[in-house]
Structures are given as structure tokens and as C-alpha cells.
Design goal:
The structure holds 2 protein chains of 2 kinds.
Chain A: H1 2-40, H2 46-59, H3 61-86, H4 90-112, H5 125-169
Helix pairs in contact in A: 1-2, 1-3, 1-5, 3-4, 4-5
Chain B: H1 2-6, H2 9-27, E1 53-62, E2 65-70, E3 76-80, E4 84-88, E5 94-98, E6 113-118, H3 122-125, E7 127-136, E8 139-149, E9 154-162, E10 177-179, E11 185-188, E12 208-212, E13 234-237, E14 242-248, E15 253-258, E16 265-270, E17 306-308, E18 318-319, E19 332-336, E20 341-349, E21 369-377, E22 385-390, E23 397-401, E24 406-413
Antiparallel strand pairs in B: 1-24, 2-3, 3-4, 4-5, 6-7, 7-8, 8-9, 10-11, 11-12, 12-13, 14-15, 15-16, 16-17, 18-19, 19-20, 20-21, 22-23, 23-24
Classes of the chains: A mainly alpha, B mainly beta.
Amino acid sequence: MKHTSHRLSYLLAFLPAVIIAGILGSVLQTQFNILAIGAIGPAIDLQTRLDTTWYDLLHFGPLFTAMVAVAFIVALPVAHLIVRIQRRQFIAWCAVAGAVSLWATFLIANHFAPMPTLIAATRTTVGTLFMTSSGLVGGFVYAVLSRHFRKRLIRKLRAQHHQRIQGNTTSAKPTKTDSERTS
Amino acid sequence: MKALAIISGANARLLSVGATLLFLACASMSAVAQDEATPQIEAEANDAAEPAYHLTTLHENLSFPWSLAVLPDNSLLVTERSGTLAHLAEDGELLSRFEPPIDDIWVDGQAGLFEVALSPNFRNNQHLFLSYACGTANANNTCLAKFTWNGETLSDGQVIFRALPAKRGSAHYGGRIAFMPDNTLLLTLGDGFDYREDAQRVSNHLGAVVRIEQDGRIPTDNPILTSRESKAEIFTYGHRNVQGIAWHPEQQRMFISEHGPRGGDEINRLRSGANYGWPLITAGVDYTGALITPYQQLPGLTDPEFNWTPSIAPAGLAIYYGNMFSEWHGDLLVPALAGKHVARLRFYRNEQAPAASPVAPSNGRSNSYNLQQEERLFTELNQRIRDIRVHPRTGALYLLTDSANGTLIKVTRN
């Protein structure tokens, strides 16, 4: 019973965390590009900024989200491993794992990609810092969300367990064997 | 898969992550060089509407051949990006292969030995020019050197131009050379890829086409650009990576071909001091799918005469006035890397525009002519084509294919 609620809650938390990190990273990347264009050209008005951000979300977001997913699949189990030993600071370790894995992803992608830098926002240190912060946020979301799901799942399983016990002590009522599929 | 089973679970995960990232990185690029060798065969065109031509492979095993010059005795000089020059006889037989006496050539990625160009006065002074990437991994750019050719080797090397600043990365050097009727030299450059915003700044050479005298001096009639710190060699700027330049004798204009990002390859008509807009305006997007700029046009920035989206990766430019294919007089021939063909473009008079408009259009484009693509040539080769040259006397065409096992192909009329 304990392990299923754990695994399920982590799995459920993974996708929202990746998507949130992907969206955040895409939005940040657009702002950095707009900053660079605004430095050499006309000032960018709000509508253009919104249009550009939306376009990038649709066309760059999927690629970046896939990169985040790959990074998190590697990094989050490592965070779990460390927390199993250290037994504290689960949220912090997930956040750090998210950030570091994204930073490593940029390095690896730039090394293997034919162009010098794949994502333009990571040309500068500040840009890379902001882009990895989306990994930080993603890791944080994963930790918080998985905790939340775990508590809800445990509460639900506990409620089902109590119902089963009450059903046993009242001999008149038949035992509800179908509803107590616990493992 | 057996190999992965032997490796432990965590390492296998890392390996597959690396492979996935590699796939993602490669999947997002389109026009950057990857070599592939295909067997070379002689081919004949069967197009009844266009002139029938005959392809002959003159030489194989050229290491990423980049440029070709036809000497007065009809022998050929071919540069290989890996840093050597091949001197070939008229029939393609190798006479010699040697390294030019260059101290600091940088070979990596897109960097290496680029263009060989004979001085317009070659018959008298035996001067020729080589463009190349110079420096190291963290400090490099495009250089131009002048040499004397004695029939067998190069001597009296003299670096007459070095693009600034020295930068990191091995991409986007430009590198093509052309001469104006007043014998000034135009050298095309690139934005160094990571420094694309610098193409708009005239305080550096990135993303510019420079114009100098053949000894490196600044011509007195170069454009005066607005910034006090502007580099005096700059002729035009706002380019991404210019790998084609040719003079059109009838229009009395210099034309260039340049690489766009994902989409946005251009033919541009050069005007002294003009800004061609990169990266503020482009029809392309970044290789990742993201926008480079919200704009496709801006007042004061010159629009292209022709645009390719999706990209074909134009790596050269020839304007044909040879004797052999007289139907093609005045046409632009553009060799394409990713497109694996040579595009032929033709000028059509724009009937709607007045013959001589007193006011130049705000987008800088020619309003008398429209360029249209007529056909894609040599697709049967299925090769990335790096350069196309016209023999000054016979009018035959010479193609160079971009590959570790590159070939020199001669195109003649049937």
C-alpha cells in the first residue's frame, strides 16, 4: 500500500512539473531575445512582446519541454536517491536537481549541435542562469506536487481501510470485499 | 542493444539521454554542414526546354573543396577547407597539392581555408588572394592575405585584412571575394553565429561586407557610417553569413547570396552604406523554432531581391555571361548546400514601376527588376554544391561539391 501511493504520486507530479518548467523556460527565452533585438532596433511594444512570446510558446516550447523531460528523467531519481540517504530537504534537492540537469542539458546540446549555441538565450551567463531557473522551478513543483498527491492518496487509502474495519465489526452487514482492493 | 545491457542501468540511462539530446539538437537544425559522399557518375540532362548539358567529373577526393580559380593557362587552383590548395590541369589531373604559407589558419567546424581569387591584374603581377579563418578556438575571425603565384607555389604572403573582433566559435565567416570595376576588393563576412546582434553594429566587422584596396588601404570613397567608431572598411552591413558575391555588368551592381537561419536565405543587391537588416528583419526563424525577431520589414532596412524559405543554403553566386550557354546571359546561378542543386534566377523588368523613379523605395529594393527562379539545375547529382564558377574564355561551368570526398565537375554543352 505504501509503495503504490508513493510511485503514483511521483509519476503524477512529473508531467505538470515538466510542463511548467517548459512554459517558463520558453517565456524567459523570448524575453531575452526581445531584449537583444530591442538593444539594436526599435523599442518593442507590449502587443509585439505578447505575440512573440505566444509564437515561441507554440514553436519552441515543445522542443524545450522535451529537453526538460529528458533532463528530469535523469535528475529526479538522483535527487530521490540522495534524499533517501539524507532523509531531509526533499524539495531543495529536487529543485537543485532540476536546475543542474537543465544546465548540463544546455552544455551537452551545445557540444553535440552543429551550431555553437543551440538556444540563443544561453549565449550569456545571465541568460543561462535564468534558463536554468526554470529547471529550479520545475524541480520545486515536482517536489511539492508529489508530496500533495501522496498525502491525498494516503488519506483516501486510510479512509477505505477504516471502512473495511467498520464493516468487519458489524456482523449483520456483509463484508464489502470488492471495494477494498488494497495492495 | 547488447552493449547497453552490459553497461549498468544508470550509465545506460545517461547514454540514452545523451543520444536523445543529440537527436533533439540535430532535429532542430537544417542548413549546417554535414558531409555525405555519394558515388560520382557522369550524367546527362534530358530536358528539352532548357539547354542539354554534359557533366564530367574532373577530380575526386577533394577535402571539402571551397573555391576555384581558372589561371590564364587554363589550369585550375582549388582550395580545400582543410587548409590545402590543389593545382589541377585543365583535364583535372593533379599537378600539385600544397599548404599555403599561412601562419595562423584555424580549421574547425565551418572554419578553414576559404576563397582563392585572382587579382584583376593577374596577368601582369601574378597576385592572388586567399581568405581563411585565422586564430584559435576562442579568438578567431576571417582574414585575407595576398600572395604571388610563380606557377608552382605561393610566395610573398601578406595579410591585408583581419576582421575584428577576435571571437569564439567556428561558424559564419563569409569568405567570398569579388572585385569592382575600379579594382577595389570586396570581402564578404559573417556574424560569427553567436554574435548576430553585432551585424547591426558598425563598430565591428561582424555581419558586414568590406571594401578595401588590393593592398589593404581604405578606399577614399567608402561609405561614411553614422557611428564615430565605425570601421572604415565596411561597405554594407546587417548580413548573417554571406557566401556568394558577383558583379552584374549590365546592371552595374554587386549582388550577394547569404544564408538565413531556418528559412530566410537571400539574394541582395549591394548599395554602398546600406543596412540589410539581420537580425532585425528576416523571413526565417531560429533552428529551435523560436523567433529571432518579431519583424520581417522595417523602414530604413533593405529587403532582399529574392528569398528562399525553406532554406536552400546558398554557398556561392555566379552571374553568367559566358559563351557556352548564351540563353542564360544575365542569369544568377546559386549553388545550394542543403538544397543540393544550383538555382537559376532571372531578372524580369517590372512593368508597373516607372523607368527611373526619382525617389528610392523605402525598403531599398530595386523597383525596376524582379528576380524569379527559373529552375533547379544538377539535382541529379544529389550533392551539396559549394561553388560554381564560369570559365572566363569557354563559358563552361565548374561545380565543387561539399564533402570529405568532394568532386570537381565540369558542365559543358552537349
